[in-house]
Amino acid sequence: MIKHKSSLLLIINSLLVFSLIFYVILTSFTSKTKIVYVDTTELFNGFSMTKELKSKGEKEFISKKIALDNLYSQIQSKSINASQKEVLMKQFIQEKEELEQFNQIYAATESSKIWSRINSYSEDFSKENNYDLIIGTENKTTVLYADEKITVTKELLTYINKRYEGLK
Question: Which keywords describe this protein according to UniProt (predicted)?
C-alpha cells in the first residue's frame, strides 16, 4: 500500500515537473523569453573557488590522515604494553571518527558556500546577458532535450571565475 502510494506520488510529481518545464518552454517561444541552460556539474567542478577549497580541504585531510596512520603504527608496535595499546586504541577510534566527521562537515559547508557564490554570480550574468531563465541540469538528467546552441556553461564558468578572481 505504501509502495503504491509512493509510486503514485513519484508519477504525479514527475508529471508536474515535466508540465512546468513544458509550460516554461512553450511560453518562452511565444514571449521571446531568453532561456539557456548550464551543466551544473561542469560549472561546479570548473569553478576556481571549488578547486581552491577542495585543495585546502585535501591538505587538511591528508595531515589528519597522516596523524591517524602514525597512531595506527604505534598501536601495531610490539614495544608497547597492553594498557598503552588500549589507550592508543581509544585515541585512534576517536580521531578516526573526527576525521570522518570533518569530511562530511567540510564537504557540506564548503559546497553551500560555493553554490551561494555561483548563484550570486549567475544572477549578475543573467542580467548582463538579458537571460530570463537559466536552467541548471546535471548531464541533462532533468531536461529531456536541450539544443547545444543554448548552453552557456562555458560562458558562465568563465564569467564566475573572472568574478571570483576579481577580474570583472
Answer: Membrane, Transmembrane, Transmembrane helix
Same domain, 88 and 28: no
Entry pTM: 0.67
User: Would you call 125 exposed, middle or buried from its count of C-beta atoms within 10 A (0-12, 13-18, 19+)?
Assistant: buried
Q: Count up the domains in the chain and report the number.
A: 2
Q: Are residues 126 and 69 in the same domain?
A: yes
Residues 87 and 158 in one domain: yes
Distance CA 130, CA 33 (A): 9
Q: Give the tens place of pLDDT for each residue, 90-135.
A: 999 999 999 999 888 998 999 999 999 999 999 999 999 999 889 8
Query: Do 63 and 133 belong together in one domain?
Result: yes
* Average pLDDT of the chain, as a whole number: 86
Highest mean pLDDT: which range of 26-40, 45-59, 69-83: 45-59
Boundaries of domain holding 49: 34-164
Residues 76 and 11 in one domain: no
